[in-house]
Amino acid sequence: MALGYVRPARPEDAGEIARIQLATWRVAYRRILPRHVLENLDEAWLARRWTAAVQEPPSDAHRVLVAVEQAEQSYLVGFVASGPADAEALAPNEPAESLGSGVAAVTDLLVEPRWGRRGHGSRLLAASVELWRSDGFDRAVAWAFDGDEATRKFLTSTGWSADGAARALDVDDMLVPQLRLHVALAAEPAPTPPAPAAPVD
Q: Where is the N-acetyltransferase domain (predicted)?
């Protein structure tokens, strides 16, 4: 039986993270981003960026987590990257202070398509939420392509919703619309303590 779990990324994972990113983008975004942009992405360049993200994060709250499927052998099948919300999380002309300091931002959340529908995305998100809460964040945001129905459906199925912010990325002179989703990170309720035993007469 295959088992799935999530762990922090290691420097030696960077090449596989880059491969997953490239493979997933070329499938999921083939009708969203220009074909030549996807074909010309440099896997080695992406791997160097992920190495830096794992080895030299800007803060302790910047994290890269990976999803692993373990059967006869282990496979890296997805990843999530997040950190405190910064200017990249803002909509155009949105004041820098509008999001506040207690907001985490997802920059990437991808599961390679051939490993989809096996719970890896849910495990990555659940592990991230647990860490965001421990870091003191009370809300999280993520941008999704307007045409990326799979990501939007996944996030909304777990309690996220659009917050009204929108933008368009300029991808080689093509404007690609995005919308921002958010979720409150209320602490999980503490278990109800058992009722005291009745006194013995």
A: 4-182
CATH number, domain 3-184:
3.40.630.30
How many percent of the chain have pLDDT more than 90?
A: 82
**pLDDT above 70 (res 192):** no
pLDDT(2) > 80: no
* Residue 136 dihedral angles phi and psi, to the nearest 5°: 90, 10
* Count of CB atoms situated within 10 Å of the CB of 171: 14
What does the domain layout of the chain look like in residue ranges? 3-184
The torsion defined by the Cα of 127, 131, 137 and 142, in degrees rounded to 10, comes to -40
Cβ neighbours of residue 59 closer than 8 Å, sequence gap 6 or more? 83, 84
φ, ψ dihedrals at 141, nearest 5°: -130, 155
Look up the pTM and report it. Answer: 0.89
